[in-house]
Amino acid sequence: MREYLYYPGCSLKGVGGPYEQSLLSAFSKLGVKLTEIADWNCCGATAYMSVDANMAIALAARNLAIAERSDGQDIIAPCSGCYLSLTKAKAMLEQYPELRAKVVGALGQASLRYTGRSNVRHPLEVLMTDIGAKELKKLVTKPLKNLRVVPYYGCAILRPYKAVSDPYAPTVLEEMISLAGATPVDYPYKGRCCGGMLTSGVQTVGLRLAEILLEAAKSAQADVIVTTCPLCHYNLECYQDKLRKSTGKDLGVPVMYFTQMLGLAMGLSEEEVGMNRLLRKPAIAGVTA
Amino acid sequence: MDLARTIKYEEELDQQFAERIASEPGGEGIWDCIQCGTCSAICPVSIYMDKTPRRIIGLIRAGFKDEVLSSISPWICTSCYSCTVDCPAKIKITDIMFVVKRMAMQEKSYRRFVIPDIEEEFVKMVRKNGRLTESKMGIKVARKSGIGNLLSMVPLAWKLMRHDRLKLFHTERMTNIDELRTILEAMETGPRVTLPAKPSVVPTGHHQEVTA
Question: What ipTM was predicted for this assembly?
């Protein structure tokens, strides 16, 4: 049985709840065991890095050090922001020996050992690489026929570490959409910023970025946008009413997680993948409107 | 009539500024910039910045410390890393934006507005609980961006609660917060981590007067 460590991050325990629910259901259906990292802490996101870099790296590294107590399983970090923070911390500790010495010392004060042996991975990449499109396709019992899907990657799993797919022309999400029986639409903004934290801080800028993405999805006549990140999901899903009021345009498009899409295609129920927790449900056969 | 000088004398510039940026992890590439402007072109938010990323880098190298540290540009940066992967000189521009933000915070020379406030609140909450509670953070952010904004978020919050994605009185926290505090305190003691100085190409500035 395949086993991974699971780093949920704060969002999956909150607004990103449907992501956690569908991820756990889909992996369990695949017979893959996920073990939540014991007493994990916040990855630091971008905010901690803006205030104190050394502490931001130590914060992320504590999770990596706890993961090292296991038998060397890879860490799955579904939130793209967490994925990037953990990956970045690992890369920086590799690149800067001065920083590493300090962080290793600080973790040592808490009896934690850091060697850098844990790999941090995004579930999209794990599903498409470790399990593979061929295996996944065999498990698709309810293909999502005639569903036009926007493959939206966002930033953090593409840049700057390029771990999930080619940062300029990624295709792995399109492959997953196709194997689920749906149709990936050609979408020029698949790696363009969703607005990030600006949607809550500086809405004139943040909401404009979300508007650009939603408008393009509309004109591509998409039935649903599929995301890989809870912040992208929130930004694209939760401001549609506000944008309709401020722009006068109909920008209403359902937004769901790729794990929900895969789960439904594998025959999981609407409840099991948290479809009822979306603010706007896509028109999929078997999913109540 | 009160006239202000718009030109800086060279001696008013901070010649050590670029070296300080270069000594921070991620800032080491600052001297490799060829001022091509690829960063500003690819940046999805440069059209909202007071100084484009290319300009920020140029200003750092020329020693315009006050202008850079008081710019809103690094705070508008969403860290999408488009500039970093596209930079032909392989400069970690996003990381340089982070370095500038940190310096501006340390020197308290940043422009007070909602974004730096959010970052500080975020750090406070993580230091206290080890994790972030999105609902509480959301309320803090909305309050800081004005009462109108706070009220406009109410319908959304209600919707999210009804969809079991927001709990009003729940606080997300880790168990062993003391362990995390030990680590963070150890990071605060002793000298800050800086990179070993490497010989840099100092720009030959012969100009008597320079403008930002």
Answer: 0.95
**Which residues of A65-208 form beta strands (DSSP E)?**
75-76, 120-121, 148-151, 183-184
Q: What is the pLDDT of residue B199?
A: 56
A102-133 as b/e, with b when 16 or more CB fall inside 10 Å?
Answer: bbbbbbeebebebebebbbbbbbbbbbeebee
Taking a contact as any Cβ pair under 8 Å apart, which residues of chain B between 159 and 198 contact chain A?
159-160, 163-167, 172, 174-176, 179-180, 182-184, 186-188, 190, 192-196
pLDDT of residue A277 exceeding 90, the answer is: yes
Contact A106 B183 (CB under 8 A): yes
| Interface list for B 36-65 with A (CB within 8 A) | 44-45, 48
Which SS3 state, helix, strand or coil, does residue A187 take?
A: coil
Average pLDDT over residues B107-127: 92
pLDDT confidence band for B112 (50 / 70 / 90):
confident
Instruction: Compute the 3-state secondary structure of chain B and give helix, strand, coil in percent, each to the nearest 5.
Output: 55, 0, 45
Q: What is the rounded (10 degree) CA torsion for A99, A197, B164, A152? A: -90
Residues B180-189 pLDDT 10s: 999 999 999 9
The architecture of the domain spanning B10-111 is Orthogonal Bundle (1.10)
Q: What domains can you pick out in chain A, each with its CATH number?
A: 3-121 (1.20.1050.140), 133-277 (3.40.50.11810)
Supply A163's token pair.
């771990």
Residue B211 has pLDDT above 80, yes or no: no
- What pLDDT sits at residue B194? 85
d(CA A14, CA A37): 17
Structure tokens given for B18? 């670029």
Of all helices (H) and strands (E), which one includes residue B148?
helix B147-152
Predicted local distance difference test score (pLDDT) of residue B195: 85
